[in-house]
Amino acid sequence: MKKFFQQYYTNLFLNDRLFAALGVCVVLFLLKFFFAWLGEVPVIATGVLLAFFLIDLFILYRIRQGVNARRFTPKRLSNGDENPIQIEIKNSYGFGVNARVIDEVPFQFQIRDKDFRFALKPAEIKSIHYNLRPTKRGEYNFGLIRAYISSPIGLISRRYNLATANTLPVYPSFINLGQYELMAISHQLTELGIKKIRKIGQSTEFDQIKNYVGGDDIRTINWKATARKGGLMVNTYTDERSQNIYCIIDKSRVMRMPFEGLSLLDYAINASVALAKVAMLKEDKAGLITVSETIGSVVPADRKAAQLGNIMNVLYKEKTRYLESNLEALYSTVRSVVKQRGLLIFFTNFESMSALQRQLPYLRRLAKYHLLLVVFFENTELSALSMEPAKDIEGIYHKTIAEKFVYEKRLMVKELNKNGILSILTPPQKLTVNVVNQYLALKAQQRI
């Protein structure tokens, strides 16, 4: 009895059309007091409405499962990217129905309007497509698919609770890794707004001996091979391989600042994954170190096939902390883990010159043994404010303060360069492109 009640009453909803028809019946009964000639019209109208209500109830509930739906999602979602979601719904009734489908998306999105309305012909299958953009890593729980079905009569709707609730992990951004892979292979960087890099010098890692063609450097002619072959032969060289590339991610409070829904830590994580992919494609070894008030995760540099998955599994769980980073512990860890000279890319943020000065001694010590690249972020809101014309005294004050902070960021770049430390000052949205480009530039210049 309880199951019967749940099936027929808890999933039964009255539509606006029924309330409108009941309102007409009430008006007819009221008018009957003033116009006797209406006679039994109100009673007949009410009876007809009741008959249609029962017919509508019967045709909607006469079969057990009138519609079926499935949700198609990726195995994991990419943080900060548009992820495609698909719902497929099929009408098993012998007549056309009107459907209202509500997908219960994870609460992290704070979306209450994933509401789709459409008509379904008999036995028709329709697909619904939409995108979701997560802004935090972690687990996201999808609920049920609620389908409200009404017949052509349209007095009532029957609710179907379709599909099953499922949980999807949100990993660091991986959807756009293919485009950075293409960058590394083809060097077609202008499509992404990146200038081409002029190669300096010549690598010493031997590749092969080939026939001389016009334009080859005559200094690379292999005279022994030329004597044996009877024609000019030249040596070709390739970029040096198996270099250690470590992404060091600061998890302290300075990385909590949000930008377009993502924190600076998330931008750094997404850039690290893309850089690891490109580095391994260039046959270098990619590694990872995270640091806050203590050392977090350490993934030794490697270029095996599973390395990128290992890095993503570590970064999937990383969160920002509330204390300042301990660079002394970072220096000790780097000295013990990274035995050979390599490229260290340190993702952090400095909001004042005093903050940089506190960390500079440790950065200089790291740069003594490795090629250090410090990546920190431009405050785009302050930059925009500094460019706007001031309209009043308060505006002049705000503009002056904004210009001071923008200028101080540029001073930080000069201070790092003065101490022999490479740096990138970048807007968050351009972080990945700028870091990958800088890595390819250092590779081309044989700095690593």
Task: Determine the number of helices (DSSP H or I, runs of at least 4 residues).
Answer: 12
Largest sheet: 6 strands, mixed
CATH overall fold name of the largest domain: Rossmann fold
**CATH homology superfamily of the largest domain:** von Willebrand factor, type A domain
Spans of at least 5 consecutive residues with low confidence: 187-201
* Silhouette: elongated
What helical percentage do the residues reach? 25-40%
Mind telling me which CATH architecture of the largest domain this is?
A: 3-Layer(aba) Sandwich
pLDDT averaged residue by residue:
86
Biggest β-sheet: strands ordered side by side in the sheet: 18-17-14-19-20-21
Helix/strand class: alpha/beta
Rg, Å, rounded: 33 Å
Q: Which class of the largest domain in CATH terms?
A: Alpha Beta
Query: How many domains make up the coordinates?
Result: 3
Describe the structure.
The protein is α/β, with parallel strands linked by helices and 448 residues long. The chain has three domains: 171 residues, Immunoglobulins (Immunoglobulin-like); 227 residues, von Willebrand factor, type A domain (Rossmann fold, 3-Layer(aba) Sandwich), CATH 3.40.50; 34 residues, no CATH class. The protein is 37% helix and 27% strand. It contains twelve helices and 21 strands. The strands form six sheets. It has a six-stranded mixed sheet with strand order 18-17-14-19-20-21, sandwiched between helices. Strand 17 and strand 18 form a beta hairpin. Helix 4 crosses helix 6, helix 6 packs antiparallel against helix 7 and helix 8 runs parallel beside helix 9. The longest helix is centred in the last third of the chain and has 26 residues. It is elongated, with a radius of gyration of 33 Å. The termini are far apart.
